[in-house]
Amino acid sequence: MLGLKNRMETVAQKAVSDVLAESGHCACQRCHDDTMALVLNQLPSRYYRASSDPAVEADELEARYLPQARSLADEAAVTVHKAPRHDTDESYQLMNYSVQIVESSFADILPLTKACLCAVCVADMVSYALDQLDCKYVCTTRGAAFTQLEELRAEPDPHRLSVFFQAIAYVNRNRRHKQDVEQNPIAEQNENQSTRH
Fold it and tell me: Which of 88, 140, 149, 165 has its CA 20 to 30 A from that of 113?
C-alpha cells in the first residue's frame, strides 16, 4: 500500500455525522459507513500521500464541497434508513475498491514504461489516476467481491488506460522526489537511465 488518503473522506465524515445527528436516523457504525459509501461514490476524490500535510487544501475542499456533501448525505441517510444492515453479522470495512484496481493496474503497467519507480512518483501517479476515475466505495466483503467480479467481466476500458498514461506523463513532467532519489536505488537507476536518453 502507498499510504494514500482521500481528503474528501473528511468532508463526507463531517456531513454524514451532522446529518445523522440531526435526522434521528440510526448512527451505528454500519449505518454510518453505508451512508459514507453512498456519499463518497458521488463526490470527486482528492487523494494525497498520508505523510504530506493536507491541512490547507482540506479547509478549501470543506468550504467548497460541504454543502454538496450534506445534500448527498441527506439522500443517503434516507436510503440507508429504508434498508438498514446493522443487524447482519457480515464483516465490513469502508474502502474504495478503485484504489486496489489502480494500484494493481500500475503494478502491471509501470515496469513496461520508463517512468520513475520511486515511492513518491508512484504514489503521485496513483493519486492522479484516482482523482480522475470514479470511486467505488464499498462496506462489505460481498460488496468488494461484486465490485471485483464486475471488474473481471468488464471490457478493457480505454478511458482508464488513457488516465493511467496521463498520470505517468504528468508525474514525469512534475517530479517531486529529488530528495528521495538517493535513498531508493531503483529510482536512482531509473533517473540515470532517463538522463541518458
Answer: 149
Record the cell numbers describing residue 97, joined without a space. 475498491
Residue 74 has pLDDT above 90, yes or no: yes
Q: How far apart are CA 96 and CA 40, in angstroms?
A: 9
Domain layout of the chain by residue ranges: 1-89, 96-197
Say how far apart CA 113 and CA 191 lie, in whole Å: 13
- pTM flag (> 0.70): yes
Distance CA 41, CA 28 (A): 20
d(CA 123, CA 180): 13
Q: How confident is the model at residue 72 (pLDDT cuts 50, 70, 90)?
A: very high
Look at residues 59, 10, 13 and name the one whose alpha carbon lies nearest to residue 21.
13
User: Does residue 97 contact residue 103 with C-beta atoms inside 8 Å?
Assistant: no
